[in-house]
Amino acid sequence: MALTKLNQLYRAVIVDHSKNPRRRGTLDNTTAQIDMKNPTCGDVIQIQLEIENDIIKDVRFDGSGCTISLASASMMTDAILGKTLEEALCLSEDFSGLVQGKDPENEDDLGDAVMLSGVAKFPARIKCATLPWKALEKALSDKDGTGFDSQLKHDD
Q1: Residue in 45, 83, 49, 46 with CA at minimum distance from that of residue 66
Q2: What are residue 32's DSSP bridge partners?
Q3: SS3 content of the chain, % helix, strand, coil (to 5)
Q4: Which pLDDT does position 16 carry in this prediction?
Q5: Among the four 80, 100, 129, 136, which has the fewest Cβ within 10 Å?
Q6: What CA–CA distance (Å, rounded) separates 4 from 134?
Q7: pLDDT of residue 145
Q8: What is the SS3 assignment for 26?
Q9: Which PANTHER family match (predicted)?
Q10: Distance CA 59, CA 32 (A)
Q11: Span 2-151: which CATH code?
Q12: What pLDDT is stored for residue 136 in this prediction?
């Protein structure tokens, strides 16, 4: 019985982030931006970052996709706001492991994103959950800070 209630709580949080996403929109002072698409399901995400002194001062996302993809983007923006670039990349790595069934090193820092741990039971949904996080990684790895268009390939 307790496990069922916990699953219901997780679902409620995921649906809330999808229907009432945090930080959805655009930034005025974008220093890094990327658009990515998951061609296997059609999810599309744009991540905009305002970075100052290697700290994520602000972040916004926009796009379209399934409940998991949009919830993950919303949860990611909460988790990375105010973090250093290195911390954000570590969180992305932790999240990727989480949705593959591994225990993250910094679970508390992932915030609501830990609610997506159940995605590990549905391998086809892992790409939906990781799309925003992969976009973040690519935006932060772009040396000129402008981001670039990319697609999440089937084997990512």
Answers
A1: 45
A2: 49
A3: 50, 20, 30
A4: 81
A5: 100
A6: 31
A7: 45
A8: coil
A9: IRON-SULFUR CLUSTER ASSEMBLY ENZYME NIFU HOMOLOG (PTHR10093)
A10: 10
A11: 3.90.1010.10
A12: 94
Q: Give the model confidence (pLDDT) of 26-82 as tens digits.
A: 999 888 899 998 888 889 999 999 999 999 999 999 999 888 899 999 999 999 999
Residue in 61, 73, 74, 72 with CA at minimum distance from that of residue 99: 72
Q: Which residue has the tokens 């706001």?
A: 81
* Closest C-alpha among 62, 60, 58 to residue 70: 62
Give per-residue pLDDT as tens, 121-149.
Answer: 888 889 989 999 999 999 988 644 444 44
CA distance 141 to 118: 28
Q: Is the pTM of this model over 0.85?
A: no
The position carrying tokens 């990327």 is 34
Distance of CA 127 to the CA centre of its chain: 11
Closest CA to 100 of 129, 71, 76: 129
Task: Tell me the two tokens of residue 154.
Answer: 């089937």
Q: Is the dihedral of CA 153, 132, 68, 41 positive or negative?
A: negative
> Which structure tokens are listed for 148?
């670039």
Domain ranges of the chain: 2-151
